[in-house]
Write a structure and sequence with these properties.
44% strand; two-stranded antiparallel ribbon; single chain; flat
Amino acid sequence: MIKLVYTSVCCLLFLQPACSHSEKKTEAIPPISSSRQVLKPVPLPPMTRFFNQEPVMGAGDPAVELKIVGEKNRVEIASNCHVAIIKTFIKNELRTKRVETVDFKVKTTTLDAPKNVEQIEETFFKDGPTDLHDLAFPELGEKIPFTFEPTGKVLKAGNYAPNSI
């Protein structure tokens, strides 16, 4: 028996239509004109990025350093939705297909950030059977303290290995 698992994470900040948080919106699509107009491309300026007010262009850009900056006592609430499609095959024949979804909300509190960022994550709402540890989140009611370097390297993840995230 071969078991294939397809997973996709969705609904960070309500962006995916598969999540129960989103609203379905429909818009009328204007009809295509029967006249054959040839559209000419609009010239666009070259793509630029600004770093320290100086434009940087093209390949060979200098490395950009991203840093995590913590704000003491900051509280963030994130709504998440995870969808997994589990297919079971026997001799290349699909035997079962199951869709598993979970909606959950996580509260993240930044404790201190003099050198490294220290946060506590707590899941306070969960609707669905998925094990949130598989997604690197605490289970319902569980609190996990995290410590990050400003570069994003995990130094501590509760009682779990720091490289488990």
